[in-house]
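User: Teach me something about this protein's shape.
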Amino acid sequence: MAETRSEIMRGLIQAIMDQESDFRPDAISEDGAVGLMQVMPKYAFQYGYGVPSLAVLAEEMGFDVPAETTDAAHQLLLDPELNERMGTEILRGLLKDQDGNLREALTAYNMGAPDYKKWRAAGADPKKLDKEARNYASGVFENYRRMYGRELPEFFPLATPRARPAGLLTQ
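Assistant: First, the predicted structure itself:
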């Protein structure tokens, strides 16, 4: 039986959390990335790519957002559910930007969108990536294979617009 898009996404998020933080909600990287999905606080309030602000997501989940600062983002991102939601929204935005190309979206996720954009603008030479960035997508693919016993698709099936039901005409 074929997996649904939401089942693949749930598994993909788990594989990313394994790669990013080894499932530790309190993980903090040397670069300052926080939590399960290792979200960078300095970008969380204005990520781009159509990604909702951390403030919007936090307020939807009932958190108070005293100020849109890096310190506030750091504290908010320590919440596992909010961190997972923010990381998932970032991934969705990057997948859309990359037309569903999962390896490119994962590379952008790992590098951070600003650094990824600079790398692409400079010619996208894989030799100019550090070892972590070169191996990141393969690691996520391997985690998914190990966890679920099947392969991730190279191109993630993006949502397609639904056809309007018959009988609903616009004027």
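Now, about its shape. The CA atoms of residues 32 and 155 lie 30 Å apart. The mean pLDDT is 89. If you'd like, I can walk through any region in more detail.
User: That's plenty for now, thanks!
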